[in-house]
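One-letter codes give the sequence; backbone shape is given numerically. An example follows:

. . .
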Amino acid sequence: MTYNRINNLVGWLVFLIATFVYVSTMEPTASFWDCGEFISTSYKLMVPHPPGAPIFLLVGRFFSLFASDPQHVAYCVNLVSALSSAFTVLFLFWSITMIAKKLAKTDQGFFSTGQIISVMGAGVVGSLAYTFSDSAWFSAVEAEVYAMSSFFTAIVFWAILKWEAHSDEAASERWLIFIAYLVGLSIGVHLLNLTAIPALAFVYYFKKYDKINITGSLVTLLISVVLLGVVMVGIIPGLPSIASSFELFFVNSMGLGFGSGVITFMILLVGGLSYAIYYSQKTGKRLLNISLLSLGFILIGYFSYGIIVIRSHYNPPIDMNDPENVMTFTSYLKREQYGDRPLLKGPNFTAKVQEYKKTSPVYVPVKDAKGKDKYIISDYKVEPVYKQKDMGLFPRMYSNQPGHPEQYRSWMHFSKNHVPTFGENISFMFTYQMGHMYWRYFLWNFAGRMGDEQDSSWLGPNNWFTLDADTSQFASKARNNFFLLPLIAGMLGFSFQITRDWKNGTIVAMLFFFTGLAIIIYLNQPPTEPRERDYTFAASFYAFSIWIGLCVVFLTETFEKYVLKNKTVAASVASLGLLVVPALMGSEGWDDHDRSKRYYQVESARNLLNSCAPNAVLFTGGDNDTYPLWYAQEVEGVRTDVRVCNLSLLNTDWYIKQMQSKAYLSDSLPIGLTPDQYRQGTNDYIYLDGESYEKNKNAIINLPIFLDLVKKKDRQVTRIYNDNELSVYPTPNFLLPVDTAAVAKSGIVPAKFAPFITPQIAFTVEGGGMDKRTYAILNLLVNNNWKRPVYFSTTLSPSDYIGMQRYLQLEGMAYRLLPVEVPGGSQGWINTDLMLKNMMKYEFTNLDDPNVFYDENYQRFTINTKSQYYTLAGQLIQEGRNKEAKDAILYCFTKIQSPAIPYDYLNAYMVGQLFKIGEKELAFKYATDIKKYTQGVISYIKADNIKETNKKRTTAITLQVLAQTLKDNGYTKEAEDIEAFLVESNLNKEIR
């Protein structure tokens, strides 16, 4: 059998192994974070958040067609990531064997059996090590763009190596054009793939130039960075920016219709490029021809973004940023809503803004008085201006967002007024940005991981043998111990390659650096992130896996030279021996990467939607609050009469526009604002008038009258500041009148609360003003006049309730706003009948299965669910409905069961409720279970020497609550035992 045939067969075998692993452990439905959004937008080809992923959407849509019913759509779209990752492994195998082939080849030019075994072993070990690496596995089992992005990186790097192998052939340029096309397509997935360009530049340099030196290498590096910049700046946002200029000129100056400038630009671009390619072909300018063809194929891939504009024109229910014209599309591509981070020069976090400078205008399309198309300026982008002394080179500590300065000071041990120096910025980059946010992730993948908590450390030798049979059963499934074997193998492989074949070693090192540390430098991460970001660097871990594979070749030669003297035997021993590395990684990682039985994130969305009254408006918060709801409605068609309204997005004009459109069974929201009353630049923020506040701070404003004055831009509510006309209000106290007769007649208020219907909703807006979303909500409440039910998710921050807490009725996982003021209900009240009915039919599949791993996202969200059961049981006890209270408590204990979802302080509080209703035996049983489990967790934390973790604190609080509960109910000895354990474990200070 020939080498090529063996190479192909073994490669496809590795592909099948990876496919089995990923499909077996794949999530069957939508995961947390962006997955619900991506599945929804793929299924119906809608518009996801910037900068979009049109290629991913198209492939996802294709796979969704194979779903037997809507509930299997998520599985099919998740399959895109599983197969993308499996193909990544396949191309990694072939890349490793191409590199290993050069290292193993003898002077005779042929391959012996031992050499083939060595090369194949290298490919198998390296590719399977990547298969089971933490970050790659995580991305492979959910519908996110990172798995497909890794696939493009893998196939581009493989194509680079193929070009190098065939560069002396007449038609070798086809590989360069193929690479260009892949790069263009990858733009429609994620920009991470572009970081492979420097590796391509070095392959070209090493192949085409005989004289290799430092100067040439530096020039090559510079050229590669310039090429990277050309694509990232010149092509991706640059071409739409030029098209925007054409559009403005043709529409505003020449009086032509919308789109005329863009069409003209596209004709000129395609025509000019086509002529240039024809000219280069005709004149025989080969390098120019290849460059132009490569540019053309990059653009062919890049033009997949046309689907974003086309679909946005149809105004689908999910239409993030509404990029239906070239102006908004350019902003969409530039991700302007996320702001900028300084790279080479900028302020430190201690810098004070001196003023805000207007920069480029924001244009919106309108019809003028004569009905002609025109772009008008609705607003200006602004940039903060700082004193020159506050500006520094290479600022790494720059963010003054709430909480960030404190995080910087805590990490760097700064005093309150300390101003960071250049050296301290560099120190922060090395310790936090590189150390904590890259090397920690790197060691997760190749050394081991302590657990799944945010900021969890890597697992080093000091913790290898700290657990025994008693403590290990309480350890996190995410505690993975690789005994440094993958790390050592990779380092040996790197040393071997760089000394034996430094050119190819440099190429792999370029890939490793630019997909890892270079991204860290470019991103300039803030001091805290909402979640771990290791998936960003999967391509860097891909490069390191090449070196793990090459360790097989190194060990083969070492064994042959010093021990076994026979290459075939040496290669077999090395290959089989090093298979321990991926085998160990797979066995350790399987339990915490297996998501095949997780359903809670979508079930929680169904539970919430089914708890709302018909035709409701439901206000939600962040990604994990909203995206599962989008998925449930858009894909599975659950309760499409409920309009989900994300408060974070409601601060934008495009989202207000969408909320005022009908969607499925949901009517448009009665916000009642015209575009000129809410577009960007208008009422972005309505300020509390400082001059009038002292005289009017106890006054109350009639809300409908005030909103009407704002719409009319009445002088009473406007002020001129820096040539800008701003809306203001003199007092934060507002009053919304209620037609009590109409409300009583409508039947929206339960009979037992009817006596408490109030003739007015009085509330106070906190802070120095109201943002656009608050303005929109208040308009909705006035125009709605209690016709549609209005709900707020229980996961929202208290400030999101706009000071209306005492008018909120808890019905499950959401509060309903009603014109009712129950005595003593300063934070709202509970409709026990409705809440009990809702919560006793909530679905919690497999939250009682100890074999299913639930990470901290699930644990955090189930705490909120437990909290509602605790609240419901407390109200039922207060009403004397002990049996129903017991049913609610046991429903929570049995459906959300430890150790799948660990016991927490809410479980301890519910034990107290069981005591209260006379269920002493049952209460003591659960108290004993909670004590045993939580003390076991503390013993595990102590044994593993885990430092500052949220788990340590919450577990300590659980024990403290349990001790107090037992003491209050006569179990003094048991309570004292727990208190002694807290002191002995040095945990009493955790809960002070």
The chain has a mean pLDDT of 92. Residues 160 and 200 are 6 Å apart (CA to CA). The two ends are 71 Å apart (CA to CA).
